[in-house]
Amino acid sequence: MSPSALPQELIDEIIDAAEDDLQSLKAFGLVGKRWTQRTRKHLFHKIELVEISNHLLDPTTRCKQLVELLEANRELCKHTRTLIIQSSTVDPDAEEKDRNLGWLQVCFEDVIKVLQMLRRSVNSIALCQGKTAAMNFAHLSPPLREALQSFVARPNIIDLSLFGVHSMEMASLAQNHSMEKLLIAFSGPPRMEALQSNSCIRWQQQPTTTAGSLTSSKRSVPSKKFLETLAVCGGAHALHLLLCESQNAQATLDFSRIRRVTVGTMHWDGAMTVIWPYFLKVFCQDVLSYSISLGPWSTTSLDTLQDETTVHFDPVVFSFDQLPRLAYLNVEVPHFSLLLPQHTQIPHLLEGLETLASSPKPVPLRYLTLDFNFGSLSVVDDVTKALAEVSECRDIWGRLDEILSREIFSSLTKVIVRMLLFRRCKFDQSVEELDELKSTIKLLKRRGSSGRWKPPVVAQKRSRSVYLILAVPSWPKDGAIRIFNPGNAVVAQMAARIGGDLFDVPQFRQQ
What we know:
A 12-stranded parallel beta sheet has the order 1-2-3-5-7-9-11-12-13-14-15-16. 34% of the residues are buried. The protein contains 18 helices and 16 strands. The chain has 511 residues and is of the alpha/beta class. The longest helix has 17 residues, at 431-447. Helix 1 (8-17) runs parallel beside helix 3, helix 6 packs parallel to helix 7 (142-152) and helix 8 crosses helix 10 (236-246). The protein has helices spanning 8-17, 22-28, 33-43, 59-72, 103-106, 108-118, 142-152, 191-203, 211-218, 236-246, 270-283, 346-357, 382-391, 394-404, 431-447, 456-459, 489-498, 505-510, and strands spanning 46-49, 82-87, 124-129, 135-136, 159-163, 165-166, 181-185, 225-226, 229-233, 253-254, 260-264, 289-293, 328-334, 367-373, 414-422, 464-471.
């Protein structure tokens, strides 16, 4: 049967199945007119104007080509939903030897044209720092700066991400009518706005306003929009300025009904220590999901943590008792922090859960996920030793089980411990050897080996404990990512000793 004779519904399904395969989509677009429209929908769904070190064309040339393409066929613009702009910037007034302008500064006129053509279709935008420096709005030309500020303030923008963006006016974001997701990482407002944020911090160290009063006082505003998801890391002044502006009677973006919050522990400073307790108490009464992560682009290693005077997070992030509706809790821990008591999050996590357990009402927590991040490992041989360091900390697992076994956590259904090995593992076993290894694990579990420690939360049948070793040893040609591969029998026995069930990730996702 000729491709042109296929029903349109079948053609659409074929194209949709290859939405992440760029080469296949390009080929489908050449089959015929009935294939073109659906193919364009996926090809132009996301446009990335970014720095790519191994690309044949520099960002300036690619941007010019994009402008020519969109101007020649304006119909393509309607398919774009996500726009990502990544660029370093330098002070244009710097000395000649230090002045190597970023591509965003060089072809700002073309970027303005792209923004104008995509202003009606894009609902998600990310502004990101470049490979060598931050994206500083003070270094951009006034027309481009104004165009970007206007673009992110448009009413159809529902998702905004700011990675390493400096000197961007934040106050205007409080006037957004449609924002649902906001990410602020290593970004901050101009100096004058930061000074305003500092004075606001001192005023709000003793908050007199509650979330309920904030909400009731703003119900008169008809175009109110409640932010649903917030992620912040290293953006204290930007966050606090937005919180201050949101209390203005004219503000349209409301932070008082956030459902999902993620906070990065790296690059924590004194401003965040002051802001976060206030934020949890006033704006997080409806939060269902709370995640504590290291933060994006974290480069912290064991060597950089040796300085005991360096503060990388504050225990205030573990104030779970300030989240009365918390149902999903995720905590990411760098494995090496267990070796440095002054930097490990585990004691603060346990204290936070202990405080939560003292609540007079049942705790709604349903899922607890602990992610041990092994991303800093540089030697493959360290994997087994590093896993042992984590899995043999019985004082940690024992107290965790004692706390979670209490009746107040009756809603808890699953405890997930994940070892995030990423590509730091190398597995030489054949498929048959891995299958035999999995069978050995199941046999150990059935026999109840004395070397295996089974958490009480599993024994009580009230919740399940899931232990996952996640690693991506390679990218197979078939596109499948084989994630669960215990490297050797020692690692497998450690997984069995901790207890719980081990799953292949596809199987785990189905449950």
